[in-house]
Write a structure and sequence with these properties.
The protein is an alpha+beta fold. Helix content is 26%, strand content 27%. Strands 6-7-13-11-12 form a five-stranded antiparallel sheet. The radius of gyration is 19 Å and the shape is globular. The mean pLDDT is 94.
Length: 296
C-alpha cells in the first residue's frame, strides 16, 4: 500500500496556496493539491486518500467560491486536465474541467441552442452541474441530460437529469459526495447566427452590469423571494462599503470585489455585515449563493 500521497505518479502539490486558483485571489493552503489526468488516476487518488484517512475536497473553477484563510485539510482535487468536449447530434458531452464558456462556443459552432444563457458563466462544467448554475433566466437543470460521477468508493455511476433533483442553485451532487467527471447536455437545433447574437447580447449585458475587471466570487447571495439583492444592499447604505481589501462593488451591489490584497476573512466579515444590516432594516435574511469552505 502507498504510504504517502506524494508517492503517486500524479501531479500533487504540497501546502499549495489556493489563492492561486480562486477568482477572489484569496484562500489558504491545501495540504495536498492533485491534478489527475484521467479517471484511473482519479480513482487511485480516492482509494489512497481513503486508505490514509484523508478527507477529499473537489474544486471546480473556483469562481463562485470562498476558501477560508486556514485553507483545506487533506486532499484537494482539481480537474483542469479533464476538458474534452464532444458533439453527438443534439447532445454535447463535456468533461468536468472544461469551461462552461467553451461548451457554449462549441454549441454555437454546432448550431445547437439552449446554452446561450451560460455564455458568460466563468465556472467549470462540473461546478455548474454541482450548483445548478444559471443566469438570465436559464439554468443547468433545463439542459443537463445526465452526468457521470465517480463515487468516494470508486464506483462509476450515471445520473439522469431527474436523478439530480435540481432546485435553485442546488443538485444532489452536493449531498452524494461523488466527483462529477463529465456532463451530457441535451440541446436543440438552431440557427448559428441567432445563437451567436443572443450570446453576444448577454455578454454585453454582463460586461455593462458586472465588475468583471476585478477579482470577485460572482453573485454572493441567492435572490430572496419578492426582492432583488442589489437594491436591498444599496438601500441598506452598503454599496461601496469596504472591509480590508474587500468592497461591495459600485457597479453591482450583489458582488464583492477584491480591490487589493483582500483576505477571505475580509470577504466573510463583509458578507456578515451585509446580512446583519439587511435583516435589521428590511427583515430579509440573505442566504449566500457563494460556496464557503475551509478552515478559519
Amino acid at each position: 500500500m502507498i504510504k504517502k500521497l506524494q508517492d503517486l505518479p500524479i501531479e500533487i502539490k504540497l501546502n499549495e496556496p489556493l489563492s492561486n486558483y480562486t477568482y477572489t485571489k484569496t484562500g489558504g493552503p491545501a495540504d495536498f493539491l492533485a491534478f489527475p489526468t484521467n479517471r484511473q488516476e482519479l480513482k487511485l487518488l480516492l482509494k489512497t486518500a481513503s486508505n490514509l484517512g484523508y478527507p477529499v475536497t473537489t474544486l471546480g473553477n473556483s469562481s463562485n467560491l470562498i476558501i477560508k484563510d486556514g485553507g483545506i485539510r487533506g486532499l484537494v482535487i482539481m480537474l483542469p486536465k479533464f476538458k474534452q468536449i464532444k458533439v453527438d447530434n443534439q447532445q454535447i458531452t463535456a468533461e468536468a474541467g472544461a469551461a462552461i464558456i467553451d461548451v457554449t462556443k462549441v454549441a454555437c459552432q454546432a448550431s445547437l441552442t439552449g446554452l446561450e444563457f451560460a455564455a458568460g458563466i466563468p465556472g467549470s462544467v462540473g461546478g455548474a452541474a454541482f450548483m445548478n448554475a444559471g443566469a438570465y433566466g436559464g439554468e443547468m437543470a433545463t439542459v443537463i441530460h445526465s452526468i457521470d460521477q465517480i463515487l468516494p468508493d470508486g464506483r462509476e455511476v450515471v445520473l439522469s437529469g431527474a436523478d439530480l433533483h435540481f432546485s435553485y442553485r442546488h443538485s444532489v451532487v452536493q449531498e452524494n459526495h461523488g466527483i462529477v467527471v463529465s456532463v451530457t447536455f441535451a440541446l436543440q437545433k438552431g440557427q448559428q447566427s441567432q445563437i451567436q447574437a443572443k450570446m453576444d447580447e448577454l455578454n454585453a449585458l454582463r460586461r455593462s452590469k458586472q465588475p468583471l475587471e476585478y477579482p470577485s466570487c460572482g453573485s454572493v447571495f441567492k435572490r430572496p423571494e419578492g426582492h432583488f439583492t442589489g437594491p436591498l444592499i444599496i438601500q441598506a447604505g452598503l454599496q461601496g462599503k469596504t472591509i480590508g481589501g474587500a468592497q461591495v462593488s459600485m457597479k453591482h451591489a450583489g458582488f464583492i470585489i477584491n480591490i487589493g490584497n483582500a483576505t477571505a476573512t475580509d470577504y466573510l466579515n463583509l458578507i456578515h455585515l451585509i446580512q446583519k444590516t439587511v435583516k435589521e432594516k428590511f427583515a430579509v435574511q440573505l442566504e449566500t449563493e457563494v460556496r464557503i469552505i475551509g478552515e478559519d
